[in-house]
Design goal:
Helices cover 43% and strands 11% of the residues. By secondary structure, the protein is α/β, with parallel strands linked by helices. Strands 3-2-4-5-1-6-7 form a 7-stranded mixed beta sheet, sandwiched between helices. The protein has a 5-stranded parallel beta sheet with strand order 9-8-10-13-14, with helices on both faces. A hairpin with a 2-residue loop joins β6 and β7.
Length: 610
């Protein structure tokens, strides 16, 4: 039994219910996790394979993956052989049951196999979290194989529920505890604790709606002046008191296994459903609905307000060796000085978007091909500096953080990080070297590619933890960006990333605190394959596909006014009068349950979920 009162948990939920994310949050604090994958047979099913790969990409690098595949006995053996200091996450039991019912294994005593699995969980020395789909709330399947699967899975769920210390049921991303310990009402994780905290600290005063005698009187109108005022507010009231969040000065240690808050799991989908009934003149906001859903989740409300002032952290880092081949250090200095003086393209975009710029100059980093670029003490100092920069932005009333770079060699360092953390091929993702006049310097690109290749060869036997990667190939600028992203997540502050530095920082932050990536938004992927591939690993889908290539930080600034407009419109629009009229004299208010107007999505096919 662990210090917080549980050794084994069964997490139930339907398809796309959020059960896997909740289970991952339960073990996020573990130093390492043995992730047990049960799915098999994806070779000829691209959609199923895509689901599996999406799960693979979001696992921290410190986790190891083990597959039981088509052998149900393998899972029982894993539980039996596990050590007391192990943490096992099994996702999910549906794949195990599907393998159990494989015709090649019949006839077979399935009940005995299920009982053996439950006994193994009960006797397991390790900490265990088992994810399982709940199919008992749907119609009885019309096919014999469907009925057999539902019956076997129900039997397995009941057996595991009896064997586990705790049982949770996840619906629409919200967990409910079905079985808890005798001395505890349930277990609090970042998924439900932060959602509850957000509800408690929301101090906005809203007058109760007056009684409405008729449907026509109940329909609110869109106040354009109020929406404009919301979009141009100077310093909106922060949603959460600053004192409620950890700071590095309060003894916070930045290390792998940190626990961060998560955005609200209900608010985003609720905002999307609300838009389905909104009084829009056309078919909707298109791809911008992703930004609306993101804003709703990070603000824990289905009617998000547009972001107020933004802060750009423009990080000017320097590198030695081949990583900076073809780079003009004096040009980097010029761009940083321009930003400080309020001049140049970045400053012009910042003025338009209502943002300020903080230039961060980091110490020069050594050549990655020759040896470690930072020592452990320098890594910790740079992470703390970034965290404190995010703290300062939140304290000064900034609503959103934008990461930018004007340094030399950052693209090569980001390439090395992506290669080291995901196994990507450097030559396929290393950006080309663009020099003034629109010309590409391919000779410099080859030198950079060789530097990354040599660095990858040098560290082939080295540890690949987050801080190890920063020390070996990342550098001070990437460490500062990583610390800033982690600090922003701790303050529930959205982060806009749009280039190699931001994506690389997101990958490293993910391996320190897996929840951090959920606070990132990619407005536009630009033209770099590195950004697209790294964003795919992080689960970030670009809101727009404009192919912007204005420079890191500038792309997000260019898109920010449009994102604000979409969020403001989504939060201010009332329900379409025709939908209200269809409800008779119910007087449905726009903040009430409008989701019933949205067409429900059908359940996914197949007997098991990932």
């Amino acid at each position: 039994m662990s210090a917080d009162g549980w050794r084994s948990i069964l997490v139930l939920g339907g398809i796309r219910s959020g059960k896997s994310a909740f289970a991952e949050a339960l073990v996020a604090g573990a130093a390492s996790v043995r992730y047990v994958a049960t799915a098999a047979g994806a070779e000829d099913d691209p959609e199923w394979r895509a689901r599996i790969e999406a799960h693979q990409r979001r696992r921290p690098q410190s986790w190891t993956t083990e597959e039981t595949g088509a052998d149900p006995a393998g899972l029982t053996a894993l539980f039996t052989e596990a050590k007391p200091d192990d943490t096992l996450l099994v996702d999910d039991l549906g794949g195990w049951v599907a393998a159990l019912l494989d015709p090649a294994r019949q006839p077979n005593d399935d009940l005995a196999t299920v009982s053996a699995l439950a006994d193994a969980v009960r006797a397991c020395a390790a900490r265990v979290v088992v994810v399982s789909p709940e199919v008992g709330l749907s119609l009885v399947p019309v096919t014999p194989v469907g009925r057999a699967f539902a019956d076997a899975l129900g039997t397995a769920n009941q057996a595991l529920a009896g064997a586990c210390d705790r049982v949770a049921f996840v619906v629409a991303g919200r967990p409910t505890w079905l079985k808890t310990g005798p001395d505890a009402p349930g277990i609090t994780t970042d998924l439900d604790a932060e959602n509850g905290a957000a509800e408690q600290v929301d101090t906005r005063v809203t007058a109760p709606p007056a009684p409405q005698p008729a449907v026509a009187a109940a329909q609110p109108t869109l106040d354009a002046a109020a929406m404009h005022a919301a979009m141009t507010a100077a310093v909106p009231t922060p949603a959460t008191p600053a004192a409620a969040h950890p700071r590095t000065g309060d003894g916070t240690v930045i290390e792998a296994g940190m626990d961060m808050p998560l955005p609200d799991g209900d608010a985003g989908p609720d905002a999307r459903d609300r838009l389905a009934a909104a009084d829009l003149p056309g078919g909707g906001l298109g791809a911008l609905v992703e930004a609306v859903e993101f804003a709703a989740a990070t603000q824990a409300t289905a009617t998000p307000r547009p972001w107020g002032p933004a802060r750009v952290l423009l990080i000017d880092g320097r590198r030695g060796g081949g990583a900076a081949a073809g780079a003009d250090v004096s040009d980097s200095e010029r761009r940083a000085a321009q930003a400080e003086a309020g001049e140049g393209a970045l400053a012009a975009l910042a003025a338009t978007a209502g943002a300020d710029i903080v230039v961060v100059r980091t110490p020069e980093t050594g050549a990655m091909e020759d040896g470690p670029v930072l020592d452990a003490e320098a890594v910790d100092a740079a992470l703390r500096q970034g965290w404190e920069l995010a703290d300062a932005a939140a304290d000064e009333g900034r609503d959103v953080l934008i990461l930018g770079s004007c340094g030399a060699g950052t693209e090569a360092a980001a390439t090395a990080v992506l290669a080291a953390t995901t196994g990507a091929e450097p030559v396929a993702i290393l950006p080309r070297v663009l020099v003034p006049g629109g010309r590409y310097d391919d000779d410099a690109w080859m030198v950079r590619c060789a530097a990354v290749r040599d660095a990858m060869h040098r560290i082939r036997q080295e540890p690949r933890g987050a801080k190890d990667i920063l020390a070996q190939v990342g550098g001070a600028d990437l460490a500062v960006a990583t610390g800033a992203l982690l600090g922003a997540a701790s303050r529930r502050m959205p982060v806009l990333v749009d280039g190699p530095l931001g994506i690389a920082a997101g990958l490293i932050a993910r391996d320190i605190a897996s929840q951090a990536r959920h606070w990132c938004l990619l407005a536009d992927a630009g033209t770099h394959q590195l950004v697209r591939q790294g964003a795919d690993v992080l689960g970030l889908t670009p809101v727009m596909e404009l192919g912007l290539d204005l420079g890191e930080g500038a792309n997000a600034l260019a898109a920010l006014p449009l994102l604000r407009a979409a969020i403001a419109l989504a939060g201010a629009l009332p329900v379409h009068p025709a939908l209200l009229a269809g409800h008779g004299d119910a007087g449905l208010e726009p903040d009430e349950d409008e989701s019933e107007f949205a067409e429900p999505e059908p359940d996914g096919p197949g007997p098991a979920s990932v």
